[in-house]
Amino acid sequence: MELSIVGSGYVGTTVAACFADLGHSVTNIDIDEDIVEQLNDGQAPIHEPGLDELVAEHGGDRLTATTDYGAVRETDATFLALPTPSRADGSIDTSIIEAGARSLGEALGSKDDYHLVVVKSTVVPGTTEDVLGSIIEDASNESRGEDFDVAMNPEFLREGSAVEDFLGPDKVVLGTENERANERLSAVFEPLVESSAPAVVETGIREAEMIKYANNAFLATKVSLVNELGNICKEYDVDAYEVMDAIGLDDRIGERFLRSGVGWGGSCFPKDTAALVAAAHEKGYEPSLVEAAIEVNEKQPKRLLELLEDHVPPQGKRIAVLGLAFKPGTDDVRNSRAIPVIEALQNRGATVVAYDPVATENMREHFPDIEYVESATAALDGADGALVVTDWDEFAALDDEFESMTDPVVVDGRRIVERREGITYEGLTW
Ligand SMILES: NC(=O)C1=CN([C@@H]2O[C@H](COP(=O)(O)OP(=O)(O)OC[C@H]3O[C@@H](n4cnc5c(N)ncnc54)[C@H](O)[C@@H]3O)[C@@H](O)[C@H]2O)C=CC1
Ligand SMILES: O=C(O)[C@H]1O[C@H](OP(=O)(O)OP(=O)(O)OC[C@H]2O[C@@H](n3ccc(=O)[nH]c3=O)[C@H](O)[C@@H]2O)[C@H](O)[C@@H](O)[C@@H]1O
């Protein structure tokens, strides 16, 4: 099929490259000319394992990019993969995706054949039909349900394993309101369903929108519960990881997402839990449990600092921060726990020396004035303390490097460094 994907960020680029790999012809539309140029040259604009290879193989061929929305007219369906960030009060800001829907509608006005518009972005129930569907109808002067349909297909990929997740999903959720839209959306997913046999959930549009929030709220709350239990474990000198390994054996709990530590960051858990809370408030409902999950998450970086202070008062000290990305495998620092950790160190008068294998440049935009180094070894050299914020594999291999610290105090927020002789080691929840 001929597909167009509006937005070529973490989701749009991954989905486009994977659909191209599955045999579709895909056009990415983005307002950023550099991204468009990179894709046409066969280069991925973001860091994701496996993405470089797919873009190199299909870029400029089955996968092309443009800034021109007119390209949608040559396609059978358009996915909107645009940002849906938080407003200051936590509620969803739909202005970017609304602007994209308007440009899409204007372009679709001169298309003769039926078109399917699929919302891939995370949006609160009602947005796809009531907001975006209406904008496209107005801008195109066409009728929804006759000339075009809207559908909702939430995305569950994780950064750091985006390609693998997209090509091997547990489930595919197809939210449509009529048979014609369902048929076209199912046709788009046919090669993926054939190759990886995920569960296919055919549902309504509002249900699809809510499934995405429920999925993320559940996972974020699971990690916060694990962090709360971990904090209690630490008070009693109990190893939270042994406890979680045991409870994870209960099928009803499941062994994944039980890693306690410095908390969840990223572009989605923080913004989606905040949007869900705001959406609930708008309807007069008090979502106490999701609010508590957010509160626990905000506490974890503070607890990391308290553990450091028990051994090294940071004032005037050189403190290494190992890991800046919000999780390993990505260069994304959006809402990374490293941000509140570095802020707290600066507030306490520490000199921060930071290292991450891929996310340094992105963190430089938040903190242009701290010292960035090229290796964990360089960060530890002469440091009075080290805080581990991201569980990059390479930190597990650190050994003699700790000997170059002035004072080898290591506070691990991710259970990645091994407790060993010669260092003062504190695990956040163990
Ligand atoms: N990042 C992730 O892992 C996941 C994100 N999502 C959701 O997917 C959506 C997109 O997120 P990301 O890919 O992370 O965003 P992103 O910020 O990485 O990428 C967005 C892209 O849209 C482009 N753009 C902005 N305005 C535009 C316009 N008017 N027309 C064309 N292009 C425009 C930007 O230049 C950028 O390349 C959000 O709703 C997010 O919640 C869902 C699942 C996973
Ligand atoms: O909506 C989204 O954007 C995505 O959000 C998350 O994916 P992502 O944020 O990329 O990464 P995760 O692996 O979920 O990690 C999120 C945060 O939770 C933390 N985490 C995760 C698991 C765990 O056991 N403990 C823990 O602290 C990670 O370190 C990270 O900071 C979801 O897992 C995806 O299904 C979803 O599509």
UniProtKB/TrEMBL annotation:
Return the Pfam families for the record.
UDPG_MGDP_dh, UDPG_MGDP_dh_C, UDPG_MGDP_dh_N
Ranges where the UDP-glucose/GDP-mannose dehydrogenase C-terminal domain occurs: 320-419
A GO BP entry is: polysaccharide biosynthetic process
Protein's UniProt keywords contain Oxidoreductase: yes
Swiss-Prot/TrEMBL catalytic activity: UDP-alpha-D-glucose + 2 NAD(+) + H2O = UDP-alpha-D-glucuronate + 2 NADH + 3 H(+)
Question: Which keywords does this Swiss-Prot/TrEMBL entry list?
Answer: NAD, Oxidoreductase
Q: Which InterPro entries match?
A: 6-PGluconate_DH-like_C_sf, NAD(P)-bd_dom_sf, UDP-Glc/GDP-Man, UDP-Glc/GDP-Man_DH_C, UDP-Glc/GDP-Man_DH_C_sf, UDP-Glc/GDP-Man_DH_dimer, UDP-Glc/GDP-Man_DH_N, UDPGDh_AglM
Name the pathway. Answer: Nucleotide-sugar biosynthesis; UDP-alpha-D-glucuronate biosynthesis; UDP-alpha-D-glucuronate from UDP-alpha-D-glucose: step 1/1
According to the UniProt entry, its GO molecular function terms are: NAD binding; UDP-glucose 6-dehydrogenase activity
Q: Which residues form the active site?
A: C268 (nucleophile)
Enzyme Commission code: 1.1.1.22
Q: Where does NAD(+) bind?
A: D30, T84, T122, E159, K271, R334
Q: Which residues of the sequence carry a binding annotation for substrate?
A: F156, L157, R158, E159, K212, F257, L258, R259, S260, G261, G265, K327
Say which domain of life the source belongs to: Archaea
Would the keyword NAD turn up in this protein's UniProt record? yes
Q: Which Gene3D superfamilies match?
A: Cytochrome c1, transmembrane anchor, C-terminal (1.20.5.100), NAD(P)-binding Rossmann-like Domain (3.40.50.720)
PANTHER family in the record, alphabetically?
UDP-GLUCOSE 6-DEHYDROGENASE TUAD
- Which protein family is named in the record? Belongs to the UDP-glucose/GDP-mannose dehydrogenase family.
Please state what the protein is called.
UDP-glucose 6-dehydrogenase
Tell me which species this is from: Haladaptatus paucihalophilus DX253
